[in-house]
Write a structure and sequence with these properties.
248 residues; alpha/beta; Rossmann fold; 8 helices; SDR family oxidoreductase; Sc_DH/Rdtase_CS; NAD(P)-bd_dom_sf; KR_dom
Length: 248
């Protein structure tokens, strides 16, 4: 695998899909920098992985966060080959109950932070002819009543992905994976009651042809494919659904 020895930074790596991506990248021999809001789960992850890991405890929306994350990777490994923008936030509510502050928060995490991270990392990525993978969602392509703000922020990330792919080619490739329903702790932070979560899970499961939820590792395998120039060197601007057929 040509990810061996490559310096890869993953945001939102403390749990869920981001943790699965970090674990898979470590198994494939990458040199990891993991970022997230909480230091404890990042350190626990680093202790479990066999390869080198640099931990950066920071909120990706905080002032100076992008510079801090990129500098940490370059200081540790001398370079940055790839960036995975995975940090995410979910706030679900019908429009009449939705808070404008929730939309602002999701745009900050899903759009502004990835854009700033790519901007800060760009000189290093160009030097290494590297790549970016944004972790979006099928919610950015499907109409989802009760989740309009979330879907709008992910649709903006999809547009950012495609625009940057055109702008940064051929030196830097930019792609996105669009997961369908995956069991992660984000479900508990979406602002829903227990009954609402169970109803949503039932609805999503019924709409997924594969008949089950995905796993973080299944998303991670697609991320690794898109990062690896040996496997995907002629792919850029792709929005790859990893959704059990949800968008079919």
């Amino acid at each position: 695998m040509s990810l061996v020895g490559r310096s890869v930074t993953v945001t939102g790596a403390g749990s869920g899909i981001g943790r699965g991506i970090a674990e898979r990248l470590s198994r494939e021999g990458a040199l990891l920098t993991v970022a997230g809001r909480r230091e404890a789960p990042l350190k626990e992850l680093a202790d479990r992985l066999e390869g080198p890991v640099r931990v950066v405890a920071v909120d990706v929306t905080a002032p100076g966060a992008a510079r801090r994350i990129v500098d940490a990777a370059v200081e540790r490994y001398g370079r940055l080959d790839a960036l995975v923008n995975n940090a995410g936030l979910a706030r679900f509510a019908p429009l009449e109950d939705a808070e404008p502050a929730d939309l602002d928060a999701m745009v900050a995490v899903h759009v502004r932070a990835p854009a700033e991270l790519v901007r800060r990392a760009l000189p290093h990525l160009r030097e290494r002819r590297g790549s970016v993978v944004n972790v979006s969602s099928v919610g950015g392509t499907l109409a989802m009543p009760g989740r309009a703000y979330y879907g709008a922020s992910k649709a903006a990330l999809n547009s950012l992905t495609r625009s940057l792919a055109r702008e940064l080619a051929p030196e830097v490739r930019v792609n996105a994976v669009l997961p369908g329903p995956v069991d992660t702790p984000m479900w508990q932070d979406a602002g829903l009651t227990g009954d609402q979560i169970e109803n949503l899970r039932t609805t999503l499961l019924a709409a997924t042809p594969m008949g089950r939820f995905g796993t973080g590792d299944e998303v991670a395998r697609s991320v690794c494919f898109l990062l690896d120039p040996e496997r995907s060197g002629w792919i850029t601007g792709a929005l790859l659904p990893v959704d059990g057929g949800r968008t079919a």
